[in-house]
Amino acid sequence: MHCYTHPAADAIGICRACSRGLCAQCVVDLGHSISCQGQCEKKAEILHSMIAQHEVIIRTSRRNRFFGPAFFTLLGGVFLYFNLDAGDLWNFGSIAGLCFMLFGVILFILGQRYAKDIKTDA
């Protein structure tokens, strides 16, 4: 591969932002990657920060995929507990409790499928 700017020179790397070949004269070492000198440095920094943020989001979503379903299921159980003593089984509170519990279960199933899809893609 040859340098994009200097076609006679061999490329020593590829710019993280634009994916063009770079020679020793055109390259800037950013510590985490290389980029075109004076052109793509800011774009490469933005890409690096986006990747770092994505890693944090993935770690957080792994932990939080259990909290949401547990919250809604527990909330539904509380609604059911306090409304089953009312005598009428199909009052607003018991229906809301069942809906919250059903939503919690569906949220848990979708979270597990999403986590499985992420594992197979990685």
What does this 3D model show about the protein?
This protein has 3 helices and 4 strands, in the order E-E-E-E-H-H-H. With 122 residues, the protein is mainly alpha-helical. The protein folds into 2 domains: 1-46, no CATH class; 57-121. A two-stranded antiparallel ribbon has the order 1-2. A two-stranded antiparallel ribbon has the order 3-4. Helix 2 (67-83) runs antiparallel to helix 3 (92-121). The protein is rod-shaped and about 85 Å long. The model has no long low-confidence stretch (mean pLDDT 86).
- DSSP strand (E) fraction? 5-15%
Element order: H for helix, E for strand = EEEEHHH
Note poorly predicted spans.
none
N- and C-termini, Cα separation: 29 Å
Largest sheet: 2 strands, antiparallel
- Helix count equals 3
Side by side, the strands of the main sheet go 1-2
> pLDDT average, as an integer?
86
For the secondary structure, the number of strands is 4
Content-based structural category: mainly alpha
- Total domain units: 2
| Helical content (DSSP H or I, runs of 4+) | 55-70%
Rg (CA only) = 26 Å
- What is the overall shape? rod-shaped
